[in-house]
């Protein structure tokens, strides 16, 4: 096994749990702590990527471009990354993000829709950015299918493609097989992004590294959507124990999680009953807070709403469907009563 590059996404995936209210001061403190601890890439964007601030996904408290600029000014060695979902973010936001200091762009599509990312990879390369492809909800398709989608991203100019377990639904063998399929098919790097809904974020990250993953993601204190992501400080400790620490200061990351991030967290993401249901039903982790809120309005158990969304195969970006499904379930209950 070789040491993977670790990208910290507290300031992007963690933005979901923060309801997209990170402030400039918080960004400065978190970036300084990660940078000092040797984390080489720090992602800063609205939780749903560039231009995610909207009625559909939740409005940002502070403009993400200002947060990106603050992050860039606060880092001495780490590269600053942004996430972009084509259709939510456009090439205009990508240009501005690059001007404000982004050096890595992670372009995310549903795992069957890599073909919508060609123009965005093209522009990113013109802008001189490092490029990463994100195949979201990757539990929904088999390894060989994902390898073909990843090959499309490679042909568009991706420097790395990630298997993204957006639902935290994978078991270690699922993660291993998917990473292995991409490693066999591609000439570029392969990454893995975990969610902890089934309590397997660290285990799956480890399985991905065993299968050859070159890059993995973490969030301090696991602050991320659903039950959160693989905690960066835990990844560092585990890699260190394995003898493949890529240069991370384990104690400094523990301190950052404990003293910088924990005090500002609205709650500690854990695999509670709703989050476990997300992993169990294979639903996008970001639906958690929306589903809880809408279920409460309609007198539903969030779990029945999440299971039905999983049955209908809802994917990332379909947050508006949560309301439609809640209306259907509530009406069905009324008819029975
Ligand atoms: C925009 C998404 O939340 C990307 C991600 O982190 C995931 O799918 O997981
Ligand atoms: Mn995620």
Automatic annotation (TrEMBL):
The active site consists of: 16 (proton acceptor)
* Pfam families with a match to the protein in the record: DmpG_comm (PF07836), HMGL-like (PF00682)
- Sites binding Mn(2+) sit at 13, 193, 195
Q: What is its EC number?
A: 4.1.3.39
Site (Transition state stabilizer) location in chain:
12
GO biological process assignments: L-leucine biosynthetic process
List UniProt keywords, sorted A-Z: Aromatic hydrocarbons catabolism, Lyase, Manganese, Metal-binding
Superkingdom assignment: Bacteria
Q: Name one GO molecular function term.
A: 4-hydroxy-2-oxovalerate aldolase activity
Q: Which InterPro entries match?
A: 2-IPM_HCS-like, 4OH_2_O-val_aldolase, Aldolase_TIM, DmpG_comm, DRE_TIM_HOA, PYR_CT
* Catalytic activity entry: (S)-4-hydroxy-2-oxopentanoate = acetaldehyde + pyruvate
Family recorded in the similarity comment: Belongs to the 4-hydroxy-2-oxovalerate aldolase family.
* Protein name, as recorded: 4-hydroxy-2-oxovalerate aldolase
């Amino acid at each position: 096994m070789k040491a993977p590059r670790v990208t910290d996404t507290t300031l992007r995936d963690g933005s979901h749990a923060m309801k997209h209210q990170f402030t400039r001061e918080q960004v400065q403190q978190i970036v300084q702590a990660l940078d000092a601890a040797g984390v080489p890439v720090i992602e800063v964007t609205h939780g749903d990527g560039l231009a995610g601030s909207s009625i559909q996904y939740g409005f940002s408290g502070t403009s993400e471009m200002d947060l990106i600029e603050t992050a860039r000014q606060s880092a001495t060695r780490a590269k600053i990354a942004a996430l972009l979902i084509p259709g939510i973010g456009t090439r205009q936001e990508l240009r501005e993000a690059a001007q404000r200091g982004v050096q890595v762009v992670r372009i995310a599509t549903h795992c069957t829709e890599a073909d919508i990312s060609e123009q965005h990879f093209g522009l990113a390369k013109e802008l001189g950015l490092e490029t990463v492809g994100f195949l979201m909800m990757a539990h929904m398709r088999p390894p060989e299918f994902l390898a073909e989608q990843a090959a499309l991203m490679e042909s568009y100019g991706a420097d790395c493609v990630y298997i993204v377990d957006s639902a935290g639904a994978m078991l270690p063998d699922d993660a291993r097989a998917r990473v292995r399929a991409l490693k066999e098919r591609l000439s570029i790097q392969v990454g893995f992004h975990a969610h902890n809904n089934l309590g397997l974020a660290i285990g799956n990250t480890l399985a991905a590294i065993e299968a050859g993953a070159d890059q993995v993601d973490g969030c301090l204190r696991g602050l991320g959507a659903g039950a959160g992501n693989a905690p960066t400080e835990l990844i560092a400790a585990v890699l260190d124990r394995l003898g493949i620490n890529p240069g991370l200061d384990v104690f400094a990351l523990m301190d950052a999680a404990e003293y910088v991030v924990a005090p500002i967290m609205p709650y500690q993401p854990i695999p509670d009953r709703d989050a476990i249901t997300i992993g169990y039903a294979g639903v996008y982790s970001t639906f958690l807070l929306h589903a809880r809120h809408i279920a409460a309005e309609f007198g539903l158990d969030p779990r029945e709403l999440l299971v039905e969304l999983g049955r209908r195969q809802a994917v990332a970006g379909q947050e508006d469907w949560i309301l439609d499904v809640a209306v259907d379930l509530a009406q069905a209950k009324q008819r029975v009563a």
